Amino acid sequence: RCETCSEEEAKYRCPRCMKYSCSLLCVKKHKLALSCNGVRDKTAFVSVNEFTDLNLLSDYRFLEDVGRTADAAARHPTMHSPTTKKLLYCLRNKARRCNIDLRTLPVGFTKRRENSTTFNYAEKKFYWHLKLVFPHCHAEYTLKGVPDDKTLADILKPYIDPVESDPVVCQRLKIYTVAPQSDVQILMKIENRKQNSVRYNELDANRSLLDNLKGKVIIEYPTLFVVLKTLKNDMVVLGQDASEPAKNSDSESSSLSSMEEGEIRDSS
Fold first, then answer.
1. In 3D, which of 110, 112, 70, 123 has the Cα closest to residue 87?
2. pLDDT tens-digit series, residues 63-79
3. Coiled coil: which residue ranges (predicted)?
């Protein structure tokens, strides 16, 4: 019997959730009710007892598809474009002169596709692609073309300022807007640390974005975490943990091996 209407004899079976249906109408109803897309999950777990030759063939074809996709990405024109490589080299070089260790990812990575950071040679300043994360409200906002001489306080005004913020955004970030400004803390994750040793640098809201990024490692673009001192729990700020003294970000970045630096240069 059809598992949607329970009246007619089933004719179809959904590759995704294995539900039986009798007609196109019931197929659409079951997709809507179960939020099912009808596409078979090629990575779904299959126990050893239920594993058959069909599952083996499916896995083999899945790996072939992955290989073809990776090969197509490697052959993409932008991967070997001299113009793209030259622009990235100039961008990293300008950042290095500002004491910022800017690193780029290979083509195909999400952050590489998202990044819209540019350097204006006439004005001699960066216009950054910036991501703001408000973990207490589970909210993220992406900003494009943020000038490097803009202070962090001015960047945050449209989001958490009780007067200047957008009403819709203000309502979503209400926990921030009602909190005193002294309770707001801006953090940035320190790169090149072990996964079980995540630490953050505290930034100065009264200083410019460029001043805050100096001496730090940036992968593609900065991601700033806006937290409240009274609520943050598992975000350890470097220098505020009694078991670990504060360190200069320059010394951390300089401790990278030449092999790692070479890999990053090659990948870009």
1. 112
2. 998 888 887 776 766 55
3. none
